[in-house]
Design brief:
The strands form four sheets. The protein has a six-stranded mixed beta sheet. It has a six-stranded parallel beta sheet with strand order 14-13-12-15-16-17. Helix content is 45%, strand content 20%. The longest helix is centred in the N-terminal third of the chain and has 49 residues. It is of the alpha/beta class.
Length: 680
């Protein structure tokens, strides 16, 4: 290499040329002085020549010395840099694109050992495999654990373009001329401190006694104060043992404040307070039950309290006797394994009926809709609300899309009757066209927006009322001006039959509509064998007085031979899982297989030893599951785990993009997990 090929660059090059630039400036000044004073200019010229000679000698002579010093500095700097990197206090490693270790510093060897046989980092830390390596110039951060220590890992991709051409020892393909560099920071103590801070976070909660009035009435007056004292003691002891605070706000309401670590204890024992309070017995005929609502992971105490209010409302709406925990990520449920005892009072039904009447009166038209694939309970409730709106002088429509075989007889009877308008039933598309700002939507037999016949209709209306007998989940219809949800009712038709008796004085509904309401109660109660109470028979008696024909309804819901054979085949091929759970598949090549699935699930409960039954059906590209039980298993919480919901002894779920066998596998896995956790 020639000398002239070695050149300075950058700021150093400019710095070395400054004396030459100054020489040029002095010569220009000397020329100007010749115009002013020749003698002074001559003397200046001599000094400029001497200065130029010195500058030239220094520039050309020192240039090689400077280059030599710079090379020496670069070599020393590189050595210092390598020393600093090797002695860096945090582990540092350089890898190939497949995770093979090329170089590591001393600290890495101290932490992970000098395991020269372990050529790949994934052998030491399984989480550090090539799947997490950066695919571009963006850095990747992740946290790994090694020998009970936590490490924050920073991964970056370092380009080495031209490496193979310059390096004589190692050759790397051109498309792989880069290294993966990782350095690790020990964050064990930091994580421990963060966990401690999180565990010390205060959580607001509310505890309600669900059936205070009932248990007070079931015990002698002289013992009532003792019963209340024993319940108070159970609650105070449970919270105080976790270093929490309890404040009694009303006779049956408590406000509590606990730490996050206390909640973790409650979660571990599945809120044992729920069962402890039930054991308080001094002669009371009924056991006390609690509803607990907690608000977690909120940034402020006010937000935590708001979450607790939402949680306690949801616990009460689901029937009580359970704990509900709400945070910014979702909702968790504990307890609620048994059905709440129904109340014989109709005060709530009367209040809701009056409120519903006030909303209907001020609206121009009323849209009533149930859930998709409507059943007898959904259609019957729709017809009941339709009759209420008509009696109040309002235009009403029932939103109905697909007519299943289960409601075909009732639907045909209404369509064939001359007493109804031709537009009594509307498809979701036509309903959206007719809806306006002065319309009201009444949703029956479901409280989940995605399950309604037309979810878009809910967005267009500002006035929404909900009447349902299913327990509420995390997905509810928001902004409802009226919500009447009674989980202990046998059916929505029972609720609507009660409302009709208060919404209009001396209302006598037509026999066709009475048949619809009676059919809904009969189907949901399995001919009055399940979930029937005093109010169920009172509602049925009211419908009989209105002209409901029991024989006609029974004949409507008889199965044809193909359907009966399909149901019998499902029962015959049922699998008994864990000696207590019947799981079957219903053929989907018949009309309304989902209805037959529900019927088959009911039939399986008649087998001795079966605590719960599950029948799955493939229909319209989806898998429908019907779950039934008598009293020993809460199938509603099982269905919730699978994305569904329903009642304690009658629930369902739907699966998308899987086959029946995969759905059965998920069901079995959920049952196993819940049994191990003590949920069922």
């Amino acid at each position: 290499m020639k000398k002239r090929d070695v050149r300075l660059k950058g700021q150093l090059k400019m710095y070395m040329r400054w004396p030459i630039i100054m020489t040029v400036l002095l010569i220009a000044m000397n020329i100007w002085m010749y115009e002013v004073d020749r003698k002074a200019a001559g003397m200046m010229a001599v000094f400029i020549i001497i200065y130029a000679v010195i500058v030239g000698i220094l520039y050309f002579h020192n240039r090689s010395l400077i280059l030599a010093d710079m090379i020496q500095f670069s070599t020393q700097y590189k050595g210092i840099q390598n020393t600093l990197l090797r002695e860096l206090a945090i582990p540092y490693v350089v890898m190939m694109e497949d995770g093979r270790i090329v170089w590591k510093n001393d600290r890495f060897e101290e932490v992970f050992g000098d395991k020269r046989r372990e050529r790949y980092l994934s052998k030491l830390i399984p989480d550090m495999n090539r799947s997490v390596f950066p695919k571009s110039d963006e850095n990747v951060e992740l946290e790994v654990r090694y020998k009970e220590r936590d490490y924050q890992v920073h991964l970056s991709r370092v380009s080495m373009e031209g490496f193979s051409e310059a390096e004589e020892v190692l050759h790397i393909p051109r498309e792989k001329e880069f290294f993966i560099v990782a350095y690790m920071t020990d964050v064990t103590e930091l994580n421990a401190n963060l966990r401690e801070i999180e565990n010390q976070r205060m959580i607001a909660g509310l505890i309600y006694i669900d059936n205070y009035d009932e248990i007070m009435e079931s015990v002698e007056e002289v013992r009532q104060s003792l019963l209340v004292a024993l319940i108070d003691r159970k609650i105070n002891k449970y919270i105080n043992d976790a270093d929490g605070i309890v404040k009694k706000m009303e006779k049956d309401k408590y406000f509590v404040v606990i730490k996050k670590e206390a909640y973790l204890k409650f979660e571990a024992d599945r809120f044992a307070l729920l069962e402890e309070v039930k054991q308080v017995n001094i002669g009371n005929a009924r056991s006390a039950t609690l509803s607990i609502g907690l608000g977690l992971n909120s940034t402020t105490y006010a937000q935590s309290y708001n979450y607790a209010r939402v949680a306690i409302d949801l616990a009460l709406a689901r029937g009580g006797d359970q704990a509900v925990v709400k945070d910014c990520h979702g909702i968790k449920y504990f307890g609620g394994k048994k059905e709440q005892t129904s109340r014989n009072t109709r005060v709530k039904a009367r209040v809701k009926a009056e409120a519903l009447r006030e909303f209907i009166i001020v609206k121009d038209q009323i849209f009533v809709m149930g859930h998709k694939l409507a059943d007898a309970d959904s259609l019957g409730a729709c017809m009941g609300i339709y009759r209420a709106a008509r009696e109040l002088g309002k235009k009403a429509h029932v939103v109905l899309d697909e007519i299943s075989n289960s409601i075909r007889p009732l639907y045909d009877e209404i369509i064939d009757s001359s007493a109804y308008e031709s537009d009594i039933f509307l498809t979701p598309e036509r309903a959206l066209e007719r809806a306006n700002e002065n319309s009201m939507v009444v949703v029956v037999d479901t409280n989940k927006p995605q399950m309604t016949e037309c979810p878009e209709l809910l967005k267009q209306s500002k006035t929404i009322a909900v009447l349902d007998h299913h327990r509420q989940g995390s997905m509810i219809i928001e902004n409802a001006v009226l919500s009447y949800v009674e989980p202990y009712s046998s059916s929505t038709c029972e609720m609507v039959a009660e409302v009709l008796q208060y919404i209009v004085d001396d209302l006598r509904i037509p026999s066709v509509e009475a048949d619809c309401l009676y059919a809904g109660i009969m189907i949901d109660t399995r001919n009055f064998m399940n979930r029937t109470g005093v109010r169920t028979f009172e509602a049925a008696a009211y419908l009989r007085r209105c002209g409901a024909d029991i024989t006609r309804v029974r004949k409507m819901f008889r199965d044809d031979m193909d359907s009966y054979r399909a149901k019998a085949e499902a029962v015959r091929m049922a699998e008994v899982y864990r000696s207590e759970y019947a799981i079957a598949e219903c053929p989907g090549d018949i009309e309304s297989p989902t209805v037959l699935g529900a019927q088959a699930a009911n039939e399986l409960l008649d087998i001795s030893g079966i605590k719960a039954s599950f029948v799955l059906t493939a229909y319209s590209g989806r898998i429908f599951m019907s779950a039934r039980s008598i009293d020993e298993v809460n199938v509603q919480i099982i269905a919730e785990k699978l994305g569904g919901g329903g009642h304690i002894n009658a629930a369902g779920a739907q699966f998308d993009n899987i086959d029946v066998q995969e759905a059965i596998r998920r069901l079995k896995s959920t049952i196993d997990q819940m049994i191990e956790a003590g949920d069922i």
